[in-house]
Amino acid sequence: MKTCYINSAVSISTQDTFDVEKLVFKPLDYSNSTVKAKYLEFKKFISPIALRRMSSAVKMGVTASQLALSKAEIEVPDAILTGTGMGCIDATETFLEAIIANNEDYLTPTAFIQSTHNTVGAQIALGLKCKSYNNTYVNGAVSFESALLDAKLCIELDEDNSILVGGIDEIGATFSDLQYKNELKDDSEIRLPKSEGAHFFGLSNIKKENSICLKSVEVLHHLKINSIETHAISILKKCGLDEVDAIITGHKNDEFDVYYESLLENTFQNTTQIAYKDVVGDYFTVSGFAVFLAQYMLINQTIPEGLTVKQNKAKPFKTILLYNQEQGQNHSFILISTC
């Protein structure tokens, strides 16, 4: 099988992460239930005529994908694979509100057409005139991982030479607020605000100067707490490894953090441990940001300022394991390394 390389990584998030040389994270504002991404001057990347009909998810996705393709030196990819938890939820809410307001009469189809989950992937393909394999995964908290796994298999089995992979989610004014409130309990601490972002990667079977290797992607719907550490170790062994240099986890300051602690308290207790959701918020495809962060660490050999870090010993970063789960389900493990 061929090796799968990640040749570019681009992120639009609640922090200044788009096309910057040095990452520095600032504390997230917990006073609101939602935090929007730092929007760019999208008109620099998208024509004003097209821009006015695009939702924030499409704007972020198209912009991030353009830079990811440019950095990976890909003109037109052999496949476009995206993951999203809620798609263009803002357009969905607009359409549903119009149904109620107009008593199901005299509805324009525009919002409905723009609300489909594959809108971002379709817009990217239209802009590139790409007629190749195009698929969107909507699998909750493992939507991005599903797209990444598909891309990895396509590269390894020599079905495609270059693939654009991305994870996108936007804030829906109504849904995100309801989702946040539903997770709260009377005696709970302040939870992470809901947020949004777009993270795109250029994958290829060709190694370049700043390439990193995508070693493993695994997704499991159910996994018992006492099996998490064992499963992580088995992933390392499959890749010929005994340890990793860092672990990036999706801690959320809730009762399900025990899943992360079960992984970190024994075999990996002396491994550098990094949490990231406290600086970018939470949404279904936020794990795409974790891959972006890991790629930055492997290339620059440093941990960005502002992250929650437990660093035990200073040594070069060669392998990084990413672990995420959502309310005790949809577990994902991603292993990447230097080449």
Automatic annotation (TrEMBL):
<dbReference type="GO" id="GO:0006633">
    <property type="term" value="P:fatty acid biosynthetic process"/>
</dbReference>
<dbReference type="Pfam" id="PF13723">
    <property type="entry name" value="Ketoacyl-synt_2"/>
</dbReference>
<dbReference type="InterPro" id="IPR014030">
    <property type="entry name" value="Ketoacyl_synth_N"/>
</dbReference>
<dbReference type="GO" id="GO:0005829">
    <property type="term" value="C:cytosol"/>
</dbReference>
<dbReference type="InterPro" id="IPR016039">
    <property type="entry name" value="Thiolase-like"/>
</dbReference>
<protein>
    <submittedName>
        <fullName>3-oxoacyl-ACP synthase</fullName>
    </submittedName>
</protein>
<feature type="domain" description="Beta-ketoacyl synthase-like N-terminal">
    <location>
        <begin position="44"/>
        <end position="166"/>
    </location>
</feature>
<dbReference type="InterPro" id="IPR000794">
    <property type="entry name" value="Beta-ketoacyl_synthase"/>
</dbReference>
<dbReference type="GO" id="GO:0004315">
    <property type="term" value="F:3-oxoacyl-[acyl-carrier-protein] synthase activity"/>
</dbReference>
<keyword id="KW-0808">Transferase</keyword>
